[in-house]
């Protein structure tokens, strides 16, 4: 948890909807440990949309969310970007988890450009 997300609630996002534009460099032992935690949590974990972070098997991932407005024949679309949390996201992927707990930070296109540079235009125009 970062200082920016300390007071942000958890939203459950489909893992398939999270874009990871930066290739992760993983510590495999860390990912495997997280996979084990997901498979055998200390207490039986049950998904609840209103769960707080203390009730999830792994800490929530931070997600930058950009809402592309409808324009020029393109429909409105929501893009969810994860710049970090690579070990947790890899563990969720290997565990075939459908939804992950996320702390969503809404961003503008110019804010997203600070992370992705000029390539953001190509990504959000798709």
From TrEMBL:
What the entry lists under Gene3D superfamilies is as follows: Conserved hypothetical protein from pyrococcus furiosus pfu- 392566-001, ParB domain
- Keyword ATP-binding in the entry? The reply is yes
Q: What InterPro entries is this protein classified in?
A: ParB/Sulfiredoxin_sf, ParB_N, Sulfiredoxin
UniProt lists the family membership as follows: Belongs to the sulfiredoxin family.
Origin: domain of life: Eukaryota
Does the record's keyword annotation contain Repeat?
A: no
* TM region(s), chain numbering: none
Provide the E.C. number(s) assigned to this enzyme. 1.8.98.2
Alphabetized PANTHER family for the sequence:
PTHR21348, SULFIREDOXIN-1 (PTHR21348:SF2)
Gene Ontology cellular-component terms listed: cytoplasm
Residues forming the ParB-like N-terminal domain are 11-119
GO BP terms: namely:
cellular response to oxidative stress
Under the heading Pfam families, the entry gives: ParB_N (PF02195)
Q: What is this protein called?
A: Sulfiredoxin
Q: Which UniProt keywords apply?
A: Antioxidant, ATP-binding, Disulfide bond, Nucleotide-binding, Oxidoreductase
Q: Which GO terms describe its molecular function?
A: ATP binding; sulfiredoxin activity
Q: Which reaction does it catalyse?
A: S-hydroxy-S-oxy-L-cysteinyl-[peroxiredoxin] + [protein]-dithiol + ATP = S-hydroxy-L-cysteinyl-[peroxiredoxin] + [protein]-disulfide + ADP + phosphate
């Amino acid at each position: 948890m970062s200082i920016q997300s300390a007071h942000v609630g958890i939203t459950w996002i489909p893992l398939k909807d999270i874009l990871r534009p930066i290739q992760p460099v993983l510590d495999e032992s860390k990912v495997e440990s997280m996979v084990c935690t997901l498979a055998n949590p200390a207490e039986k974990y049950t998904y609840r949309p209103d769960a707080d972070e203390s009730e999830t098997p792994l800490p929530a991932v931070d997600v930058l969310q950009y809402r592309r407005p409808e324009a020029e024949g393109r429909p409105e679309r929501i893009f969810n970007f994860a710049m970090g949390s690579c070990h947790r996201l890899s563990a969720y992927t290997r565990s075939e988890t459908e939804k992950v707990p996320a702390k969503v930070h809404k961003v503008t296109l110019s804010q997203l450009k600070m992370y992705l540079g000029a390539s953001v235009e190509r990504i959000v125009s798709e």
